Amino acid sequence: MRWSLSLHVAVVLLLSAFAVGIVAAMFWLMLGRPRLDAAGPLKPGDVYDGIKIALAIVAGAGGVVALVVGYRRQHLNEVSEEREHGRSFTDRFGAAANQLGADQPAARMAGAYAMARLADEWRQERQTCIDVLCGYLRMPHAPDAPVDEAGFTAWQSEREIRKTVLRLIGAHLRDDSPESWQGYDLDFTGAVLDEADFRGARFTGGDIIFIKALFVARDHDQVVFDEVAFADGSYVYFRLAEFRSGTVRFDRTVFSGGWVTFDAARFTGARVNFRDVAFGAGEVRFEDAEFSDGLVDFAGSTFTGAIVDFGEHRLESLHVTVPPARFTGGTVDLSRTATFTHPPRFGLRTAPGGLLLPPGTHIGDLP
Q1: In degrees rounded to 5, what are phi and psi of residue 262?
Q2: Interatomic CA distance for residues 189 and 86, integer angstroms
């Protein structure tokens, strides 16, 4: 379509003439290569036949020109419609982004829903829309409520908006979502999470980043990863995250592949449940993690194939060594695991205080 109209027509006419020549040659070969003998002077009937052939050629050429012009017109119309369609998406994106940045909480709430709906419909820029929603959660937010009434009201309103954004993201990660966001990147770096429901989500690809996130669940308000599936192709980072308070649940989660790291994370007061979890494949790493308070409970979990590593880890490509997990308080309870055929790696000679192993298992027996 970058050609001029005259060049486009000329090329199509040449191709048409070439095609006609090929077809005529094929018919001539199929008829046994008959000889075309001149029969003397042209008769009036021959002249009329020649005129008919010439008119047919002219009509065919005119038809080719008309087809080229019609094709170009249709293409330009489609391009114009596509541009208008794209412009409408762009306008909606700008409007939703403005709502997310509005002063009124109701407008920000509406902006969250508008951006999520736009992500469902605008597949070409779905990742951008998701990035905006995650970026909203990365904005500063106090983990504790202010004591004054006005400040508490504003804090509570902002908290509800953030809970809504997380709820929208979590719903799109489940298999029953009409428009799935599985496989897309999610960046929650530095976000404050005090209530999030990722129950039943499937992480099948992309980078899921909770680096430096702060988990501060309150009372019955919890951060839930129950029945989540971590599959091949997913990379989930809880690196440098802090689990400060409340309950964070990974109950009945299935590790069937992928890579999940809690390296350098700090467990400073929260209860983190890995109950009835199936560690079947993939890697789950706790190198350089600090357990200083709270409880990490692995009751009912099965260790049958995944690499679960609390020990020292050497990164050959970088020639550096990541130190093992540090047990300075709190409890890591492995005493009630259901299957321990492929136990975690600790690399320790003596069990630190707070590390509870299954009955009859000595720390020296572990890798």
Answers
A1: -110, 25
A2: 30
pLDDT in tens, 279-290: 999 999 999 999
pTM of the shown model: 0.77
Closest CA to 126 of 139, 117, 136: 117
pLDDT at 158: 95
**What is each CA distance from 359 to 192, 206, 331, 341, in whole angstroms?**
38, 39, 16, 14
The CB density around residue 278, as the number of other CB atoms within 10 Å, is 20
- What whole-number distance in Å separates Cα of residue 202 and Cα of residue 227? 9
Calpha distance 333→271 (Å, rounded): 11
Alpha-carbon gap, residue 184 to 239, rounded angstroms: 19
Could you report the per-residue pLDDT of 139-182, keeping only the tens digit for each?
A: 999 998 899 999 999 999 999 999 999 999 999 999 999 999 99
Q: Which two tokens stand for residue 136?
A: 């909203």
| CB 313 within 8 Å of CB 335 | no
> Are 248 and 221 spatial neighbours (Cβ–Cβ below 8 Å)?
no
Q: How many CB atoms lie within 10 A of CB 36?
A: 6
Q: What does 260-318 look like in DSSP terms, one character per residue?
A: EE-TT-EEEEEEEE-TT-EEEEEEEE-TT-EEEEEEEE-TT-EESSSEEE-S-EEETTT
In this structure, are residues 365 and 344 in contact, taking their beta carbons and an 8 Å threshold?
Answer: no
